[in-house]
Fold this sequence. Notes:
- The complex is a heterodimer of chains A (about 210) and B (about 575).
- With about 210 residues, chain A is mainly alpha-helical.
- Chain A has eight helices and no strands.
- Chain B has one domain (about 5-570): FAD/NAD(P)-binding domain, CATH 3.50.50.60.
- In chain B, a hairpin with a 2-residue loop joins strand 22 and strand 23.
- In chain B, helix 1 packs parallel to helix 13 (about 550-570) and helix 6 (about 140-155) packs across helix 13.
- Chain B is globular, with a radius of gyration of 23 Å.
- The model of chain B has no long low-confidence stretch (mean pLDDT about 95).
- The chains are: A mainly alpha (about 210), B alpha/beta (about 575).
- Chains A and B meet through helix 6, helix 7 and helix 8 of A and helix 2, helix 3, helix 7, helix 10 and helix 11 of B.
Amino acid sequence: MSKPESPDPQQAADPSRRQWLRGGLAAGSAALIPLVNSSCSTPPAPAAVSALGAASESVLAAVADRLLPADALGPAASALGAVTYINRSLLEWNQRDLPLLQNGLQALDEAARRRHGRGFVALDAEQQDALLMALEDSTVAEFPEGSTWFNRVHRLVLEGLFSDPWYGGNRDFGGWDLIGYPGAVLASTADMQRLGQRLAPLHTSAYGSEHDGH
Amino acid sequence: MAIELPETDVVVIGLGASGGVAVLPLARAGLRVIGLEAGTWMDPGRDYRADEVHNNVRALVTTGGKAGSEVPTFRTAVDQVARQQARHPMMNAVGGTSIHYHAQSWRLNPWDFRVRSATLERYGAAYLPAGSTVEDWPLGYDELEPYYDHVEYAVGVSGKAGNLRGTLDPAGNVFEGPRQREYPMPPLRSCDYLDHMLASARAIGLHPYRGPAAINSEPYEGRPGCAFHGYCDRGGCHIRAKSSTDVTTIPKALATGNLSVVDHANVRRIVTDSDGRAVGVRYFRHGEEYLQPARAVLLGTYTYENIRLLLLSRSQGHPDGIGNNRGQLGRHYFGHWDAQAGVSVAALFPRDLNIWYGAIAQGVMVDDWADDNFDHGGLGFIGGATLHAYTEKHPIAAAGMNTFGRVPRRWGSQWKQFIAENAGRWASAYLQTNTFPYANTWCDLDPDVRDPHGDPVLRITSGPKVNEPRAAAHAASKMIEWFRAAGAIEVVGGQGGTGPVLSTHAHGGTRMGLDPSTSVTDAFGFVHDCPNLGVLGGSVMGTAGARNPTQTLQALAWRTADKLVEKLRSA
């Protein structure tokens, strides 16, 4: 293993390493540039409105919570902020997905009512899973583009679970903790690239400490 | 009416990977150079973030602006309507795509320059891929070697020589052509995973080495060494350790006092006179139209825009576009991926790899199954692919992993448990295939889709290939062996690549050649029918090596610029 050139490995071992992202990296010439853009250090205002509307958003939350259910490993997708992330994305940079998502959520709810006499949210987990599997395989007759919709929702839920908490998902770094991603850093040491050990969580956002969920 | 500006010696269109290099020898030679760039200067503190959504999901560093409005359309057969691709990282900025590329910085293998004659010599005519228009380059590796060297030292490339003036060193790539001196910096820092992959490759008789990178491995010319934060892919470098041209050759050229950078310059046409010679360019900037006269023009935009701008620059002397008097403009276009040759192989290991951090260029390479480094007798293809094991894994991509058939579906509790255990235990390898031009693959102007100025975008027609998918599948089987040797418990991939898509390694379309009936530019990159117009970038390349093209197109750009200095001095 070659010796790391930058930054000083002592810096990585420093328990106050979260300070890096707030104030700057003390060691090495990396300190010459700002580490967190000041114009980004104000968090985006929480979305006051729902892009999908309350009813569809609750169906989306129910879907997301079947994709990543609550269990011994941790909370479900919506508790981890996945729906918050998706809502914010639909209001901001991802508006083009809104019709697809909206149509799919309505179709899903209607398919639930037709099959079981109640909406998707009110189904039990087994019924929800069966319907989602049929959608994933595009075998729901009323919703032939089911797999397109399913894949897009699946992808957005993944983004909401595992993106930087700055965007409203990955609440309290719960998504990153689940998969063992330690956190956003501006420099890594050779020790952070060792085989065979799970790294301790850093709980660091690229956007500073206000967004680390604490 | 366009505002006519005072004449300059050279206008360079595009200050990216190629134009950003060409300005340096021009400015050092004392020529007055104006660099027209559609984007502007990036601000590392503001624009570059350790954020997968910013870089990869939203592609905010790499797309948008002018480039975002002129993405080519694509089809795989002439009876299809070509569709515009959603986006393509043809970044507009001072530094261009060299800002966000992986910065794997290669010399091509000497074989890449003479594929046709080498294949005829070793295997016979039956081995030339059917339908291919491949021909030898008008220059060989030895002629480009000094320019590779200039680039390695001027931009800053880290690596280990494998062939120093004919002496082989197994710590480097023993298959590379001879180089006159070492890299200016040692390879990037290694890590456990890469050390393990390197040892595993050696154990099965391969010749692995640490891949070269245009990233500082140690402080170089006032810029720091890499910090390995893991957001190099489609992001810029927050500490300027990546040797993009905006922090290397362009500042050096500016320091001479001979280069003026004009940002936000949207070039619409290259203007020619009644003799067909280039006399300047027309561009828009903040709503005003300008005419910039020049003694010579170098066109250094992305491959697609190079071809498009030449096609659009029609005049009496060039009724079908500049360089198209023999119908060659847009022909011999090809890209690594569009030939189904971009192959990924993924492997699952029984332990945490800790490759979250690092950089894609922090890698281990194997060239044993690329180029003509092995006997192709009986295999039914020529060329092959390099195998690249690397670091830098972003959390969304990691969790979106292949489940290797180990859970019934990619959601639900079982899946959750699977990714909790394995998202940090898988790696992918990246295989780049030697790729050749074909008669069934070319670019022209789209009949329907236009940019906001009303000009048609480029249309790509890409027909089927046989050689490249075979070569890629062969290399993928070798990658699977390597992963298995390294202890992977599951390996998938190599089943034919991504299929034809818009390539990010776009080559050809203004091919260099000695014969104007099969090429657009001459042996130095100047347009046959417009000799004071030089073309820079991947569009002049006649073959794609089994590796990233940037350092080669930078070496070619330097050589074209040197030739232009000679031409203007003798004029």
